[in-house]
Amino acid sequence: MPPAALSAERAGALSRAESKRFRPERPASRGKDDATRNARGKSVILNIEEAVRKPASPGRGTAAIISRQPWDSLLPHLLKVGVDTAAAVEQLKRFTTMLIDWNSGISNLVSRNDLNRIVERHILESVEPAHWLKASGAARWIDLGSGGGLPAIPLAILGVGEHWTLVESRRNKTLFLRKVVQDLKLTNVSVVCDRIENLGGDDGLAGAFQGFTSRATMTLGPTLVLAARFVGAGGAAFLWKGSRRESEMVEDERWKAFWDFDGLLGIGAGQTVVARFVRIKNEL
Fold first, then answer.
1. In whole angstroms, what is the distance from residue 171 CA to residue 252 CA?
2. What pTM was computed for the model?
3. What per-residue string of b and e applies to 236-263 under the rule 16 or more CB within 10 Å gives b?
4. CB neighbours of residue 195 within 10 Å
5. 280 phi/psi in degrees, rounded to 5
């Protein structure tokens, strides 16, 4: 069963943490070369912030990529979570369009080699286990190293859980995530610009979640040790892992003090699996 609802005081602290402002940039270094690099860096930031303010509109090549994607391959997985499939696919297309445009014109979110198979490589991998995550009953979710919003944004679109907190330390990527949240009107998603190691102290986030996700970030052991700080007893962690999952589970076994391994779900046609772990009653 999900833990009891947060108190008003704790919920207020959580809200303040999730609306955390970006850290100020470091002062420019002295010297002509440093000044040039600093000016270029400011120009890039201004271009990114301008892109955030502008309404999203697909680039010339983006529409062609979107039209070639196998959107029908998502339908069986959307039906499993009981969503309006037409509305969900439309939102996923809008998200994917924004992802491709940002990746092509502003900064990398995914490998450029993946763009022509972005549904197969990224969207399908995100939504295929959605029914499993939804069945956990977790209401509040936290996603580590959200990057381009995979898997958290597609899962939020599909109504998995009631609220998502996306934690990403790189400012360019958090700007993209905030634009997605704004343009797609995802009122159930918050974005935190920080390293997850810096959170979970007096910010109201410790033990505040029932679900945790991570895809293409750190190795399994350290990820679960960090996740234990945020997920209460009985909650669940879902990790997207590749061929090294078994070796990672034994390389660093500190996670066993906080989690029980609770099964695997194979996704896609490759070696990717989603591993589920259940939080046990053991303090950090």
1. 30
2. 0.82
3. bbbbbbeeebeebbeeeeebeebbeeee
4. 14
5. -100, 165
| Domain carrying residue 15 | 8-21+59-279
Which uninterrupted H or E stretch holds 237? Answer: strand 231-241
Residue 76 within any structural domain of the chain: yes
Mean pLDDT, residues 139-153: 98
What is d(CA 152, CA 212) in angstroms, rounded to the nearest whole number?
Answer: 10
Distance CA 79, CA 119 (A): 17
Report the C-alpha gap between 128 and 155 in whole angstroms: 10
For the record, the structure tokens of 160 come out as 């998995």
Q: How confident is the model at residue 22 (pLDDT cuts 50, 70, 90)?
A: very low
Backbone angles phi, psi at 259, to 5 degrees: -135, 150
247 assigned to some structural domain:
yes
Q: Are 147 and 173 in contact (CB under 8 A)?
A: yes
- For tokens 């996306």, the residue is 166
Q: Kindly report the CATH number assigned to the domain that includes residue 193.
A: 3.40.50.150
The single-letter code of the amino acid at 180 is: V
Say how far residue 223 (Cα) sits from the centre of its chain: 14
Quick check: bond before 154 cis, omega within 30? Answer: no
Q: How confident is the model at residue 7 (pLDDT cuts 50, 70, 90)?
A: very low
Residue 215 main-chain phi, psi, to 5 deg: -135, 125
- Cα(117)–Cα(113) distance, rounded to whole angstroms? 8
Question: Would 82 be classed as within a structural domain?
Answer: yes
Closest CA to 173 of 143, 208, 148: 148
Q: Give the burial class of 38: count Cβ atoms within 10 A of its Cβ; 0-12 exposed, 13-18 middle, 19 or more buried.
A: middle
Question: Are the C-beta atoms of 258 and 221 separated by less than 8 Å?
Answer: no
